[in-house]
């Protein structure tokens, strides 16, 4: 049986003779978190804030005292911090969640180390190879930890590396090609994560991770298609349009199957933006903008209405 939700208890209370005390007991036992849950939540929250503020403080320390520190002190401090945090991760007394959070902070410190190295020896702290090396050196930690926030950081580094490579090296790449690669990369990772979550019960992938990946893939697809609409001579545009159409059809089917309002809202809104851009491409007079405004109002209203009906069902 699936976990009882708050709406289930409210629905039962409307169509039964359940007393107020019975409703309160059901909410307290099934819905409201107990003291142990609150303690676990606050412990993880404070640990996350502590590590996040510590890493931020280290970054601002180097930024504020940059001119007064010798280069060996700069490198020695950040390397010592990485070693210390890595040793703490290996302690058997800490939990897996705490270990993963600390390892995420260590992964950020690796980027700080390469940024400091790049500033000292003028290798370029904003070049694509900086993010590429950062990505490569935290790959093992990402695979070992299997921690969703660390995976998000890792995928952010991969996307940033690809975007900077397009801007700094691959000058012959078109905008549509870049967003096609980004869409295929993120949608491919999303599909793999969904398959792992479905067929590997031992591996738990959070819903927010899947939703963020889906939102990123839909964003890249929308931007790429809009660029292709206004630059129709791009040879990569048919590939993006076909793959995006298949992905959107699969996303709608998946959203209906699992009754997820996320997919049934992100994909229609993306389609609304694409159709609006196509109408602007056809004509840019005042009547077309009026038609687009009416189209957006009607389509958004229909999407919201369908979502409300699905939620009520």
Protein architecture, described:
- This protein is an all-alpha fold and about 325 residues long.
- It folds into two domains: about 70-170; about 175-313.
- The chain contains 13 helices and no strands.
- α1 packs antiparallel against α2.
- The chain is flat and about 65 Å long.
- The relative contact order is 0.05.
How are the elements arranged and paired?
Blueprint: H1 6-14, H2 20-31, H3 35-64, H4 71-89, H5 96-121, H6 128-137, H7 139-145, H8 148-168, H9 175-199, H10 207-230, H11 237-258, H12 263-282, H13 286-312
Mean pLDDT: 80
Tally of DSSP helical segments: 13
How many structural domains in the coordinates? 2
Poorly predicted runs are none
Instruction: Look at the helices and sheets and give the structural class.
Output: mainly alpha
Roughly how many Å is the radius of gyration? Answer: 25 Å
Tally the beta strands: 0
Strand content: under 5%
What summary fits the major beta sheet? none
What is the H/E order? HHHHHHHHHHHHH
The backbone outline, from C-alpha atoms, is: flat
Tell me the helix content: over 70%
Terminal-residue CA separation: 19 Å
């Amino acid at each position: 049986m699936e976990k009882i939700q708050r709406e289930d208890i409210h629905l039962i209370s409307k169509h039964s003779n359940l007393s107020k005390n019975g409703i309160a007991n059901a909410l307290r036992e099934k819905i409201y978190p107990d003291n142990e849950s609150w303690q676990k939540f606050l412990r993880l929250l404070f640990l996350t804030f502590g590590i996040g503020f510590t890493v931020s403080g280290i970054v601002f320390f180097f930024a504020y005292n940059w001119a007064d520190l010798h280069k060996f002190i700069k490198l020695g401090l950040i390397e010592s911090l990485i070693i210390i945090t890595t040793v703490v991760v290996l302690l058997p007394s800490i939990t897996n969640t705490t270990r993963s959070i600390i390892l995420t902070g260590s992964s950020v410190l690796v980027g700080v180390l390469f940024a400091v190295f790049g500033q000292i020896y003028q290798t370029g702290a904003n070049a694509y190879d900086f993010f590429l090396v950062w990505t490569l050196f935290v790959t093992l930690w990402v695979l070992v930890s299997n921690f969703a926030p660390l995976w998000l950081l890792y995928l952010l580094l991969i996307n940033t590396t690809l975007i900077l490579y397009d801007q700094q090296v691959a000058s012959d790449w078109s905008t549509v090609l870049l967003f096609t690669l980004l869409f295929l990369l993120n949608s491919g990772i999303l599909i793999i994560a969904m398959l792992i979550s479905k067929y590997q019960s031992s591996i738990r992938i959070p819903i927010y991770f899947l939703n963020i990946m889906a939102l990123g893939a839909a964003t890249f697809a929308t931007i790429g298609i809009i660029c292709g609409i206004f630059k129709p001579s791009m040879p990569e545009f048919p590939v993006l349009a076909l793959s995006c159409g298949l992905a959107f059809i699969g996303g709608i089917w998946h959203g209906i199957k699992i009754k997820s309002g996320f997919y049934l809202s992100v994909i229609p809104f993306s389609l609304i933006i694409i159709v609006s851009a196509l109408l602007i491409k056809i004509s840019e007079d005042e009547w077309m903008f009026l038609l687009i405004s009416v189209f957006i109002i009607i389509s958004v209203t229909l999407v919201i209405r369908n979502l409300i009906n699905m939620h009520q069902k």
